[in-house]
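Dear Dr. H.,

I hope your travels went smoothly. While you were away I took the liberty of generating a structure for the chain from your last submission, since the lab meeting agenda had it listed for discussion. I wanted you to have the full record in hand beforehand rather than looking at slides cold. The sequence, exactly as received, is reproduced here:
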Amino acid sequence: MGKWHMRKLALGTALWVLAAGTAGAETPKLAPIPAAQAPGYDRIHETDLRADLTFIASDALLGRMSLQPGDDASVEWIAAEFAKAGLKPAATDAKGQPSYLQSVPLIEYRSNPAANTLTLRLGTTEQSWKSPEIIGGYRDDVDLTAPLAFAGFGITAPGLGYDDYKGLDVAGKIALVFEHEPQENDPKSRFGGTGNTRYATNRVKALNAQAHGALAVLVMAEPNRKHPSNLERVNRIGGSAKRVPPLPGQALTGDELRIPVITVSDAVGGQLLAKAGLTPAALQAAIDKDFAPQSRQLAETTVSLHLENTQRSRGMSANVVGLLPGSDPTLAAETVIISAHHDHDGSNGPEIWHGADDNGSGTVGVVALARAFMANPAKPKRSILFTVFAAEERGLLGSYYMAMHPLRPLATTRAMINFDMIGRNEAPSDQTTGLIEIPADTTNRLNLIGASYSPDFDRTVRTANRSVGLDLDDRFDHENALNVFFRSDQFPFVLKDVPAMWFNTGFHPDYHHTTDTADKINYAKMTKIVKLAYLSAWRFASEAAVPAFVADPAGQ
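The corresponding predicted structure, in token form, is as follows:
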């Protein structure tokens, strides 16, 4: 063989090796499933997920609106499946007997936007606003008049050396706060860089204002924002957001939050801050520049708030809860939670909001995992609490209730995997257009939300994924336009310092529309996601080291 042929052969061999290496990088060999876990892993079937979701998202369940018969039927089905799988009831009923249902007492109300009024008295002048300049309602009728104080972003974060209430007395007053948090577009911000932290949500701000003695909270979008306000974002979605009549409000009976929270427009916020000495934009700029609060009393500024409801009633929903006791006598006292939520947005005459992805997919995923763990002869060392929450769409009410009334100690709850929308391919929609970049191919992609609060948790999931091969994505932990971090049931547990992550396949044009139906689910990907959760939960429930919780994640 001549030198040319030798060189040609060598080049061809090198190109083949390079190509083989590249192909190996794109489609790596999956790690084997541990033998002790394989029977349960093999019990997770795409056909079961399809059949269960076809039922849960069917017309017969009428969109599973909280406190309506369709959702009650979903509760009964989940409880029956937990019982058939062999889980133990994790709650007790009113008679003290074991039950798969943790009752969640709710108040349902319909606010009257035509009557709800915010009135500003500035010295001797008076000005009033109604919807759409003010948005929101409250479970009780409200009539109160009090001085107004500006409390910056409404945040008290000792671990970050930041407190909007330092030196500010709001006792017996109404607090006005900005949405979100300081320096949110700075990757090096102490508030988690460019992502949302647990201080960014209005509920946390309202609880903080309440702790400082405030009577109510008015929220305005931060004036220098580079994204839609929360209200503008919701209105972009359409679907349920623009139903006529609108969906009723719901609240927990005996909620720890006992003051109203009302959103005001930019124009109203500007008028409320007339006596601040700086414009709203200048106030935010000063906070962002020096990471220093600009809170202040507003001289001669009094606000009256009138809220009323046209309807108000009480009802009972339920978190569905089943327990797999741990196999280790000592570690069985510790808990791993696997969760989803069973409710959606119901129906309106002939229109049905089927909620196949949101969150029929998560519901049947939890049921599939209950069957898988119970079918596996070996059991994990720690206990697993399978939970499908009530009334998530009405404000994470079931998960807030359980976080306030835990069935097992939260101090020894080692990890939580939450399913919410695990069935679709992420696609451009009014929810996300212009706000976040979506990869070209999402057919194998899973978003992991909340990793910054527990890098250990994240590493465990990624290790388990070597056996499954999903494309894992943490984009939503680094953006602040969509408020994703605090929009599902893991969030109330993050507030209690529980390492928790939300598994999610992203938004799509059918989100909160009647067209979110079971035929559009990517069942092959959904099956892989449930299998990843199975392997991850095994590790959380059996490995000696448990994920650490990071209270105040740093920026980049």
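Two observations you may find useful: The longest strand covers residues 309-324. The mean pLDDT is 94.

With kind regards,
E. W.
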